[in-house]
């Protein structure tokens, strides 16, 4: 592990060069892999190389990593990969790191990266092969958009009806490709628990300069066909544990928590759930009305709105979610679910740990982001 960390520390400033070299090598070794990636690689923006490196740096935590790799392997069935693609990705990644590290790429360093990649690729391929053998899940799902309307100028609600039911559980997310941006996959979380008709509701916020989110908010229309990979993620509530639950949602990160709350609504004897829901401005809290009216008829749920802008609404929690939540603690007895932009997750998790919460109490997705 030390070899991976030390060499990554040296290679990190050259990530752009590593990415370029990775694709050069990959498309030479396996030209057919070009078809999996978007026409403009600029739109891919080094996501895959960053993801690969993040995963390989976690191989010393197999208990956490293996379940994630199993989901990722199932998800990657959407590409129709062969063993040769996995080999080519490994060779290209190691070749790109070697190119960049020069003499620091010693045999020990090479062995460490190669072993990590083999373990990761094997777990993903085994999970994909198991899914293949079970033959209960297709490699991907398609669904038709039945509704698209704006909840605010930069936020859209999109309803999709899959042809075949997608076997997700409330709190999970799906990798999605939309017709306006072919082969650019983005993660989105259904905001509803699975329904008898299989329909999914998504809340998508247009990010400044974002390739996919702006296309969805601005140009999606009924009749569009969306493609989905296998469900991923580990946010869930253990109703049997008897422990109270703390949920912390930033922005559209509220969607998977809404889905879990929606699911819990099937029971009356739920654990006590406290949901902090925050954003920059009061008007950004688009899901608040719905959550508050749900809480009014489900006494196990308490909702705390939080806004960063001071003085916007009297009596409302102010500050970042990390500040608001730690002010209202302690949370040492709770199971904790955090959902939102990566920076918000990172700040909130760090603040909770500083107040004495044990890391094992906290869950967030994607696990690979941190
Ligand atoms: C597990 C998971 C679940 C998600 N669920 C949802 C969801 O339900 N609804 C939803 O709208 N989005 C959700 N997202 C975010 C979504 O996957 C995309 O990352 C987001 O829509 C931006 O994609 P893009 O192609 O528009 O931006 P890109 O073209 O990928 O990025 C453009 C620029 O914006 C930056 N950026 C990317 N995302 C953000 C962000 N969230 N905040 C600030 N800057 C950002 C990038 O670093 C880049 O500089 C989820 C993400 C994850 C990991
Ligand atoms: C060890 C093996 C692998 C791991 C750990 C891995 C991991 C990942 C992860 C985490 C993502 C999501 C990235 C994000 O959205 O931020 C991703 C996306 C992707 N992966 Fe893999 N992957 C592996 C192998 C492969 C292989 C063999 C191929 C094909 C040659 C491949 C092609 C892709 C593509 C095309 C995307 C989508 C890129 C985009 O839309 O931006 N992956 N991978």
From TrEMBL:
Domain FAD-binding FR-type: 138-238
PROSITE patterns assigned: FAD_FR (PS51384), GLOBIN (PS01033)
Residues annotated as domain Globin: 1-129
Keyword Iron: yes
Coiled coil location: none
Family annotation (InterPro entries): Cbr1-like_FAD-bd_dom, FAD-bd_FR_type, Flavoprot_Pyr_Nucl_cyt_Rdtase, FNR_nucleotide-bd, Globin, Globin-like_sf, Globin/Proto, MRET
SUPFAM superfamilies: Ferredoxin reductase-like, C-terminal NADP-linked domain, Globin-like, Riboflavin synthase domain-like
Protein name in the entry: nitric oxide dioxygenase
Protein species of origin: Saccharomonospora viridis
């Amino acid at each position: 592990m030390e070899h991976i960390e030390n060499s990554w520390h040296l290679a990190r400033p050259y990530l752009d060069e590593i990415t370029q070299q990775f694709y050069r090598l990959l498309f030479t070794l396996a030209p057919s892999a070009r078809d999996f990636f978007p026409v403009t690689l600029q739109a891919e923006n080094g996501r895959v190389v960053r993801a690969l490196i993040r995963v390989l740096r976690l191989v010393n935590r197999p208990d956490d990593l293996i379940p994630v790799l199993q989901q990722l392997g199932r998800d990657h069935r959407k590409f129709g990969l062969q063993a040769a693609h996995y080999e080519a990705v490994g060779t290209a990644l190691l070749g790109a790191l070697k190119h960049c590290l020069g003499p620091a790429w010693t045999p020990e360093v090479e062995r460490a990266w190669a072993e990590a990649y083999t373990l990761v690729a094997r777990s993903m391929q085994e999970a994909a092969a198991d899914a293949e053998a079970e033959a209960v899940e297709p490699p991907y799902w398609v669904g038709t958009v039945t509704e698209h309307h704006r909840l605010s100028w930069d936020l859209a609600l999109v309803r999709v009806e899959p042809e075949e039911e997608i076997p997700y559980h409330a709190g999970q997310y799906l990798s999605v490709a939309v017709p306006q941006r072919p082969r650019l996959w983005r993660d989105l979380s259904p905001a509803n628990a699975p329904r008898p008709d299989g329909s999914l509701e998504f809340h998508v916020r247009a990010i400044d300069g974002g390739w996919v989110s702006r296309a969805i908010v601005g140009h999606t229309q009924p009749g569009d066909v969306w493609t989905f990979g296998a469900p991923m993620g580990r946010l869930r509530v253990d109703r049997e544990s008897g422990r109270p639950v703390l949920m912390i949602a930033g922005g559209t990160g509220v969607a998977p928590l809404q889905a879990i709350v929606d699911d819990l609504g099937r029971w009356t004897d739920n654990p006590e759930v406290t949901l902090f829901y925050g954003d920059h401005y009061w008007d950004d809290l688009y899901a608040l009305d719905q959550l508050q009216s749900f809480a009014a008829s489900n006494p196990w749920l308490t909702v705390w709105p939080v806004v960063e802008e001071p003085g916007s609404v009297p009596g409302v929690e102010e500050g970042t979610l990390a500040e608001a939540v730690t002010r209202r603690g302690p949370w040492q007895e709770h199971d904790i679910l955090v959902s939102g932009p990566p920076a918000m997750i990172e700040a909130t998790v760090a603040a909770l740990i500083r107040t004495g919460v044990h890391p094992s109490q906290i869950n967030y997705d994607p696990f690979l982001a941190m």
